[in-house]
Amino acid sequence: MRLSAYPLQNLKEVPADADIVSHQLMLRAGLVRRLAAGMYSWLPMGLRVLRKAEAIIREEMNRAGAFEMLMPTIQPAELWQESGRWEQFGPELLRIKDRHDRSYVYGPTHEEVITDIARRELKSYRQLPVNFYQIQLKFRDEIRPRFGVMRAREFIMKDAYSFHADEAGLEVGYQLMYEAYSRIFTRMQLKFRAVLADPGAIGGTGSQEFHVLADSGEDAIAFSDGDDYAANLEKAAALPPAAPRAAPAAAKTLVPTPHVRTIAELASLLKVAPSLCLKTLIVEGATGELVALVLRGDHELNALKAQALEGVASPLRMAAPERIARELGAGIGFLGPVGLGCRIYADHSALTLADFVCGANERDAHLTGVNWVRDLPEAEGADIRNAVAGDPSPSGKGTLAIVRGIEVGHLFKLGRKYSAALGATVLDEAGQSQALLMGCYGIGVTRVVAAAIEQNHDERGIIWPDPLAPFDVALVPINLQKSARVRDASERLYAELTAAGFEVLFDDRDARPGVKFADAELYGIPHRIVVGERGLDAGRLEYRHRRAAESEEFAIADAIGFLKARRTG
Ligand code: ATP
Ligand code: MG
Predict the structure, then answer these.
(1) What is the pLDDT of residue 198?
(2) For 158-203, what is each residue's pLDDT tens digit?
(3) Is the CB of 516 under 6 A from ligand 1?
(4) Is-contact 136 446, C-beta < 8 A?
(5) Pocket test for ligand 1, best of 40, 89, 447 (most atoms within 8 A of CB)
(6) Is the CB of 409 under 6 A from ligand 1?
(7) If I label 422, which of 175, 282, 466, 533 is the partner at 20 to 30 A Cα–Cα?
(8) Where are the beta strands (DSSP E) in 30-183?
């Protein structure tokens, strides 16, 4: 592509609401433009990247034996009523009406439509297994669309649905998708991890997410350094400490702690580690009473784990301060488990502390040297905290590290949920009618593009991995308008490289070299060739990889071989 013919400009000013790097860079480099909240147009430069991602996904889905198809975005409400999701889905489901007052949804996902196809088309186990997929727009009326295309309302998903005669077949089909996803993200040259989305489920493989690792990721992932255990932090078990509780050594003492509001302030005032200070949180119980949750001061409550406890309201609700004061006679900031008049759960790690510090349940006072059993009854032990780096892995091997990730894909064994609701059956070998077993498998295609930028950028712009780059090569002539030699050499190179299969961004604009370099770097073109008078004298061109700090030179005659050797994927 000749940049002189490309009419679109880069953005100099990034809108204030673009608060993560990928969103800023996608706007600055002109990959996308916002139409409305959570709705984006893909401009030519961005669409090239999107198509690259799609092509890799399509190739690997086809390689795995899946069949591509295309379903309508708008779906009749009746199907959603049949599955029960018309009621269940909530406000993320965009409901619309046609001129005849018939109800429809704009598809947030396509289980209903594909199951409708399956119940019409699949009659016998002999047609199984089968996997259908599409690459298509979805709409979810997200409560907080943000981060550009990362969490949009309209976005492109690759969604696949597999159908099987039995559990063993579903397992095989699921594994095929696992392997396809691993190949897809490997080919995109992204750093990723497959994590358990629900390790509690039987076998632990009912659902897995693929995450691209990036500090800006919305999800925290715990993974073991000893084996391939990886789980969403909200689901990762925190094991009880291996070492038993030490014997009491200190005497229980009431200490004044005026103006202390936080664990950090308490720890610094008393000169103890935050891990030795307990924090006591009061939540609403399942049947109206209050329940206390006690954690080490350096640990964080895990709401999902806590709300699963017997007697605790789900979803978890913190009790109102007035109610705590009224019913427990204590104020937030000075709460503690000693003499507290309600049910108390303590995290396993809080339960193994000795000589700890906790609120005294009276204003401006804490207790030090407190010990379970000796000073208060042992609380009920439970896992109610987020795992932290250094915890033993729940898999039994290695310790946990915590990283942040962006969910780009999801594998899910659906079982008979939709086939039973919609009556999608086939005849088995014995001639019996059986509801189909299903799996579903999504990839956020537009999100992958943003995730790739989160992982690959610097202060100057995007650094595309070769397989996703909108162009392979930025061809930057110096003084093209003045030098016939530069023009001839550049035009020849442009033609040769293009003929050899390279996608070349030819910066033939009448602009200063600095402007051209800056744009090529902002666009993230992986390979840059500079054509200048000086190099031409010696029959050489200047090359720099987008990640490299220094340029190198190569012989003009060898341009194609040189670039082929440097291109990856
Ligand atoms: P999330 O937890 O991020 O909302 P989800 O669990 O709702 O994701 P799925 O229903 O599994 O997502 O959809 C499959 C894939 O579609 C996700 O893994 C993600 O990559 C992508 N996706 C989901 N919601 C959005 C969105 N609002 N914008 C862009 N991509 C999305
Ligand atoms: Mg969601």
Answers:
(1) 62
(2) 999 999 999 999 999 999 999 999 999 999 999 999 998 864 433 4
(3) no
(4) no
(5) 447
(6) yes
(7) 175
(8) 32-36, 39-42, 67-68, 74-76, 94-97, 103-106, 130-139, 154-164
